[in-house]
Amino acid sequence: MGTPAFPNLGKHCSVSDCKLIDFLPFTCDRCNQVYCLEHRSYIKHNCTKPNKNDVTVVICPLCAKGVRLIPDQDPNITWENHVNAECDPSNYEKATKKKKCPAPGCREVLVFSNTIKCRDCMVDHCLKHRFGPAHKCPGPKKLETSFSFMSLMNRSRKEEPKPNLTSASSSKWSSGLYNVASSILASAEAGISKLSGETNQSQQTTRNGTGQSSGSGHRNGLVEQCPQCGAKFSSVTTLVDHVQKVHERSGNRSSGAKKVTIDACPKCSRGFVDPVALVEHVEREHGGSSRA
Predict the structure, then answer these.
(1) Could you tell me where the Polar residues compositional bias lies (predicted)?
(2) Which helix (H) or strand (E) holds 272?
(3) In this structure, how many other beta carbons lie within 10 angstroms of the beta carbon of residue 116?
């Protein structure tokens, strides 16, 4: 059998009356025997298991379920196993009930060839009632395509809080959002007020040549006092204006003589001819307060 180069090439036919050497043998998928071209079919070689891979299903008359018959098993045994374990007579009416057209007054049975599904209500109808006006179609369902944040907030306020995780997380999220918005608003207002105060202070400093008193005496509610007449003022600027208008002009009107040192520092007793120089001295040396 075979050739010197391929000694295993070819096999004998399994039929006892043939025994032909076939170099392209056929293996039966039922009995797994080797046959030649002439005896390859089940009938030619009288196959012992011709129904090994066949699938046979019998409909049960009690439950309308399909029962598969096992090739190597007696059909009576298969049927008895189904009746004792799987058979349910209550399923017969459900399985055998035919689906009919739901249109009012229509009794036509729906099968594969006459069933059309409505594109709006998504319900199967017969060919006669396939259009919407024929079966009184309610129309497509309206789906909410947009998300409304305000409607969600109003709905959460109207509904009573429930002790579950979803409501707790949503309320926590809402409170956190409110706190963040409040902090941002407070920071913006503080920044605006601070910027406005700095702007006013810089404008006042540029106009008068000196800034308002920011020493400890002004913070404690103390006022500036004129060293000549003892008049009190709320700021150094008003004190300078008072000295220039009252004392300096009155001195010029009383006598045309040369000015003498009449202004003394109430703290260090240093004399000054010009009241402005005295005020600058008080701001620079004594912290902006002329009170002794």
Answers:
(1) 196-217
(2) strand 271-272
(3) 14
What would the two tokens of residue 116 be?
């059309």
Which amino acid is located at 69 in the chain?
A: L
Q: Is the separation of the CB atoms in 210 and 278 below 8 Å?
A: no
Residues 250-277 have pLDDT tens digits of 655 544 444 444 577 777 767 677 778 8
The Cα–Cα gap between 191 and 47 comes to 100
Structure token pair of residue 259: 């000015």
Question: Rounded distance, CA 33 to CA 121, Å?
Answer: 60
Check: CB of residue 103 under 8 Å from CB of residue 134.
yes
The angle subtended at Cα 120 by Cα 115 and Cα 123, nearest 5°, is 35
Residue 30, number of CB atoms within 10 A of its CB = 15
**Measuring CA to CA, which residue among 240, 251, 250, 246 is closest to residue 282?**
240
Q: Please answer whether residues 272 and 282 qualify as being in contact, where contact means their C-beta atoms are separated by less than 8 angstroms.
A: no
pTM score, whole prediction? 0.28
122 burial class (0-12, 13-18, 19+ CB within 10 angstroms)? exposed
Amino acid letter, 266: P
pLDDT in tens, 199-242: 666 556 555 544 444 444 444 444 677 777 877 777 777 878 88
Q: How far apart are CA 244 and CA 264, in angstroms?
A: 16
Q: Which residue has the tokens 């120089």?
A: 277
What are the two backbone dihedrals, phi and then psi, of residue 96, each rounded to the nearest 5 degrees? -95, -10
d(CA 205, CA 212): 7
C-alpha distances in Å from residue 287, one per residue of 223, 241, 248: 13, 20, 25
Phi, psi (deg, nearest 5) at residue 22: -115, 125
Residue 31: phi and psi, rounded to 5, are -100, -5
- What are the residues facing 124 on neighbouring strands? 117
Query: How many residues make up the chain in this entry?
Result: 292
